Amino acid sequence: MAQKTPAKKAHAEDPHYSQAVQNYEAGLRALQDRKFDKARTHLQKVLEGPKELADRAAVHLNICNQHAEKAATQFKTPEEHYDFAVSLMNVGDYVSAREHLDKLSKQVPKADYVAYGLAALDCLTGHVEDSLRHLDQAVKLNPVLRFQARNDSDFQNLAEDPRFTELLYPDPGGELPPMTDTSGE
């Protein structure tokens, strides 16, 4: 009767298994060094190998992907972060856009563009009062935004609201100080 070779010995003699183990170990070392792209490369090679290693590699690969996603949302400037939030609004992801704009409003509370973005988002999501409040704040910080809002389709829900009109088209003489008589009479 022939003896069966133990599974461990068979694995050790299999060059594909040995290569998968090497890739798995290299992936783990890279993961521990926080080199997620390098780890991902090694771990993806293991997915084609033996099931027990492939399952473990998939777990670690998931960790690499989570860190890569987190790194992708690290912004160098508030303006870059704002652009990302606007892109979320443009694809209709209003919940995520609000999270990012709220975070920005805490980071840079005096940023006119953040107040403007919140006004647009509030309008798009039907929060008229909040939209008007944020737009008023944005215009106070930067009066030029008044002209931008006039042509911004994000505010079409407010087009007929008299408060919106008053905000964007103020009384031309209302902002001027009263004239004093300098004629000497």
CATH class category of the largest domain:
Mainly Alpha
The total of beta strands comes to 0
CATH topology of the largest domain: Serine Threonine Protein Phosphatase 5, Tetratricopeptide repeat
Rounded Rg: 30 Å
Share in helix: 55-70%
* SSE sequence, one letter per element: HHHHHHHHHH
Main sheet characteristics: none
CATH architecture of the largest domain: Alpha Horseshoe
First-last Cα distance:
130 Å
**Residue-averaged pLDDT, rounded?**
84
Proportion of beta-strand residues: under 5%
Uncertain regions spanning at least 5 consecutive residues: none
User: What name goes with the CATH superfamily of the largest domain?
Assistant: Tetratricopeptide repeat domain
Shape: rod-shaped
How many helix segments? Answer: 10
Q: Structural class, please?
A: mainly alpha
**Total domain count:** 2
Please tell me about this protein's structure.
With 185 residues, the chain is mainly alpha-helical. It contains ten helices and no strands. The chain has helices at 7-13, 15-32, 36-46, 51-72, 78-90, 94-107, 112-124, 128-141, 145-150, 162-168. α2 runs antiparallel to α3 (36-46), α2 packs parallel to α4 (51-72) and α6 (94-107) packs antiparallel against α7 (112-124). The longest helix is centred in the first third of the chain and has 22 residues, at 51-72.
SSE layout:
Layout: H1 7-13, H2 15-32, H3 36-46, H4 51-72, H5 78-90, H6 94-107, H7 112-124, H8 128-141, H9 145-150, H10 162-168
Q: What's this entry about, in short?
A:
With 185 residues, the protein is mainly alpha-helical. 68% of the residues lie in helices and 0% in strands.
